[in-house]
Design goal:
By secondary structure, the chain is an alpha/beta fold. It is built from eleven helices and 19 strands. It is elongated, with a radius of gyration of 26 Å. The C terminus is likely disordered. The chain binds iron/sulfur cluster (2 copies).
Length: about 425
């Protein structure tokens, strides 16, 4: 059972011990807010909509592994852009699915403008998303029209009050639908002097009536290149009394850090600059094509004649292929990925052996076995002469005959899941 109190944004008490990571998998947006400029990319720029790289779902899953290794206090995986999650629903749902598979203990969180979320309410509930933020800065289309320059519904673009009205309808329905599914809802409201500061407590009242759990009033951060660039950022003297008034109807968040779309770490100790290189490296990972031709077989062997090493202890793999005469030849030796904790070692190995149809070793742990198989590489726990086993791999036959006395997946000599090797 997940502990939903471990979300540092929804529960201030845990902000010093529980962290969050934003996975930047959603580049497109379906509305245009007059304060948003997502083009600017700088690791020193801390505001929503900014990220140093955009990730594909499989890259986000790799990044998550790396982040947890470096900062195990992360309890929340969220998607907050750099655009809107539901302008990129396939990427977002696939990311959540992968995370749910690999890290079911994490809390999953989404932050949206609410425009496109309605068709996906059941999906996100099924995927275990426990917290959703909807940004609502006006509940009057006349005021909304000053905040949004356009709103896109499928192929139709709405402007002015009509756009604000369509958006508002979706936002309010989203809160209702999320609460019906037992999801914790936060409403972010951007306080924009001269535009909505006299209206923001009305937003609080309306969303509280619909059951929203908490409101986060965020002072506008004037951003270069936007229509609101010249508005002066409201200070505590503006926000404080508004929060006090709104606090009579809905709990107020007071510790928001206005995070980037790739924020990571504790709220008071953001590590997005430190993990920027890891994020970039993950954004450059290529998917493993499981349908690519696989001419070779990898073998864990000490001397190159017998299959006599455990997968986890092999520092290199002997790569075998067929020769012109129909026999077998050693093509090369390939270094194994550096041993370390976590499943990344095995995804790296799958990438290293992406042109191999099988790997032969004297023992293989359960986790690497599953991960290799998922990536189209058959793991065989066998022993004896390499060429004899290759005969069966290439020409078909029963690999059982090559099993040694003790050979089996997760052999007794290879304890554990394989994720802790070396
Ligand atoms: Fe930018 Fe978010 Fe507004 Fe989209 S919804 S324009 S990403 S602030
Ligand atoms: Fe939490 Fe505010 Fe950062 Fe969102 S922007 S993750 S609400 S601190």
């Amino acid at each position: 059972m997940k502990d939903t109190t471990k979300h540092p944004c929804f529960n201030k008490e845990t902000a010093g011990s529980c962290g969050r990571v934003h996975l930047p998998v959603a580049p497109k947006c379906n509305i245009q807010c007059n304060y948003c400029n997502r083009k600017y990319d700088c690791v020193n720029e801390s505001r929503p909509g900014v990220t140093s790289s955009v990730l594909k779902p499989f890259q986000a899953a790799e990044y998550m592994d790396a982040v947890l290794e470096k900062e195990p206090r992360i309890t929340v995986a969220g998607i907050a852009g750099p655009g809107d999650p539901f302008a990129n629903p396939e990427e977002v749902l696939e990311t959540m699915r992968l995370l749910n598979e690999k890290h079911p203990q994490l809390l999953f969180c989404l932050s949206s403008n609410g425009m496109g979320i309605l068709p996906y309410l059941d999906d996100i509930a099924d995927l275990g998303v426990s917290h959703v933020t909807i940004t609502i800065s006006a509940v009057d289309p006349a005021i909304g029209a000053k905040i949004y320059s356009w709103v896109k519904d499928g192929n139709v673009v709405y402007r002015g009050e009509k756009g604000a009205e369509v958006l508002l309808e979706r936002q309010l329905a989203a809160i209702k639908g999320l609460k019906e599914r037992g999801i914790v809802v936060k409403v972010n409201s951007i306080v924009i002097p001269g535009v909505n500061e006299d209206h923001i407590t009305e937003v609080s009242r309306v969303v509280a009536e619909l059951g929203a759990d908490i409101q986060n009033m965020i002072p506008l951060k004037p951003t270069e290149g936007t229509p609101f660039a010249e508005i002066i950022e409201p200070g505590h003297e503006t926000i404080g009394p508004l929060r006090k008034e709104a606090g009579k109807v809905i709990e107020q968040m007071t510790h928001c850090k206005r995070c980037r779309a790739d924020a990571v770490g504790l709220l008071g100790n953001d590590q997005s600059a430190a993990l920027c290189g890891t994020l970039k490296a993950c954004s450059e990972l290529r998917p493993i094509d499981i349908n690519a031709p696989r001419p070779y077989v990898a073998v864990a062997s000490r001397e190159g004649m017998l299959i006599n090493q455990h997968l986890g202890e092999a520092k290199e793999f002997h790569i075998w292929g067929k020769n012109e005469e129909g026999g077998f030849k050693l093509v090369e030796k390939r270094n194994a990925p550096v041993a370390g904790c976590g499943p990344k070692r095995w995804t790296d190995l799958a990438a290293t052996l992406s042109d191999c149809r099988a790997v032969l070793a004297a023992a293989i742990g359960e986790t690497p076995s599953l991960m290799l198989e998922e990536n189209g590489i058959m793991p065989y726990v066998v022993s004896g002469f390499i060429e004899s086993a290759l005969e069966t791999v290439y020409n078909g036959g029963n690999m059982e005959v090559h099993k040694g006395r003790r050979g089996s997946i997760a052999d007794a000599c290879c304890t554990g899941t394989g994720t802790k090797c070396g």
